[in-house]
Amino acid sequence: MPRFSIIVPSHGVSGRLSQALDSVLAQSFDDLELIPVCDDAEAPAAEVAAAYARRDPRVRPVYSPPSAGLSGARNTGTRAATGAYVLFLDGDDLLLPGALAAVDARLTETAGVDVLHGEYERVPWWEGEPANPAAPLLAKAPKGAFDPAMVPEPFGSRLPAWSAVYRRAFLAEHELAFPEGHFTDLGWTGLVAVAARRAAVLRRPLVRHRARRQGSRLNLPGAHQHTLLDQVELVLTRAAGADLPPARLRALFDLLFTEVLKTASRPHRLPSGHRRFFRRAARLHRRHRPAGHRFPGGSLGVQHRLLAAGAYSAFRVLRGANRAAAKAAARLPRPRMLRTRLRYARALRRPLDPNLAVYCAYWGRGYACNPAAIHAKARELAPHIRSVFLVEAGQQHTLPQGVEHAVIGSHRSWELLARAKYLVNNANFAEGVVKRPGSVHLQTQHGTPLKTMGVDQSTYPVVASRSGSFTRLLGRVDRWDFNLSSNRHSTQMWERAFPGSYEQLEYGYPRNDMYCTATSDDVARIRRELGVPEGRTAVLYAPTHRDWADGFETGLDLEEFCRAAGDDVVVLLRAHYFYDRGTARSSDRIIDVTAHRSAEDVCLAADALITDYSSIMFDYANLDRPVVIYADDWEVYRETRGVYFDLMATPPGPVARTPEELARIFREGEYAGAGSQELRAQFRERFCQFDDGRAAERVVRRVLLGEPPEALPQVIPLAERVPAPAAATLVRS
Questions:
Q1: Which one of 108, 427, 480, 544 is separated from 26 by 20 to 30 angstroms, measured CA to CA?
Q2: What secondary structure letter does DSSP report for 131?
Q3: Pairing mode, if any, of strands 94-95 and 199-210?
Q4: What's this model's pTM, rounded to 2 decimal places?
């Protein structure tokens, strides 16, 4: 039997789950079992947990449906536990280094306690110093083991469930379980406080609680606020039959009704049913008020009296009912010119146009990427929606004939942004764009994250110094209603990098549809347009941006590579779009395609890809063609830019660290050999989950046409997809 069972619910936190699990498995005290609780075997978090279980036999995933809620997940984990003591850890929190060793030592000192309460760090989401809310409470507790009934203040009931360690036999003896519904921690800690006969405290933080950017779900308005009274009634009913000392019972009553009054004094949390909540609370107050109870002093005492009397109207007046629950979004810069600001403000007062969609890609660089693919599909499936593409001045020529457009910053562009119901972008619209009620913002992204993104960049100084304000970034994230993902890895990393309340759409990237729909004629046409000589092997070289470098350097002597790799090799050079200056670096063996507007066309034309750490590798893998990684500065890149996984451990093909090794891989055919195919198959299994050729259709039907998820085309399994044929395949056949 292990000493500890650590139960980790994972619903909605798959992006941070690995960090929580790592914090447990890295403990110096290792006599433990780790029980991640996942929604089901197919859930994103289940994939993470299963990978840990394969590596470490101490990890034992179990399953609890989302409908069972947090209480159901914890109860499922408790039933599966075999340890002498049980700990709970939220899937986005961390067990602090040395915590288990300290707990073990304290349990040895205070042998046989039912519950051991510990401190915890509460880390603000963004700015501010960490706090230790439990320290003042635990400072009042006796130094050794004690009978909780002899301590008047039930401080354990004011702490989260995960700030304590519980003897499993004690839980089983009293049949303790997390009560259903919301506010389950309040019910659980109250029941534990009533049942425990021997307790102790550990005056050191055990858990780092990372406050969610969205705040606690329990503070949101809705009918779930009524379940607070269910928990209060449950605890007080149990306490009434437990023969608690009068002082203890009175303190527990005050603590519980302090929580009730917090909700009663915030009518916005109960947009309907506030009067019903108040009246039920008043009945509970009268029924369970202990003998000898005295109302507290001050305003809180007045609230108690009004609640006990059922004086609803007087209570509302006292608390200043109907206060605004939130202020306008963060201070955002407006359009710069006065006349434009006035036009925009006027347009915001007009109704939304339900049949207007505004698109933008790469900060206005042109008609490209996911927004362009969605735009094209919308014209086919939703022709009643007027679609307008925003571009920078001078980029109008990138638009296909017949595509309505507006120049970014113009009066017309701001009027369109103010009136459009649908706004689609693969980056972000200007900070001055207001998220209007009823509008729908779709963030399509423009790659799969290997390198750190969003707020995860904040710990990398070189990147952070160039990223601008993360606070402003989060303000833009708050406008998103939907966020697009092409694989489960992306879903999890977007959750970490861009925390918000948007809905993840695991539909694939619309720009990648053509990798499944293009024909041999399309491939041949694109190669002719790019100038690829017939019968040659076209190798696409697409390095990514280096945050610490100014300007673009190829990183390779491409002419020398062509000579060493073979006479039939030509290179398609595609620099990062940051370096598109409209100038070409072409020669007989090198074709510069940086300025070509469609990365998808370039990929279709290429027989193989060489890249370093560019996200193009994830898109190109959909074609099931050879990929080679040229990683001459991987260590520098990883330490300076930050990455989400070790590419060297799971590459999509052979890895070269020197120019000579890269040339040999092509000269000897290793780039297309069996070993390369095996690596690529594993990579595709992980990163090509949803790109099946119908992503744009799914997006248009769900976002623009409002069709339910169950009515959308199902994702075609990877094994059943037929990628667009490579030119080399056509030549051989």
A1: 108
A2: B
A3: antiparallel
A4: 0.71
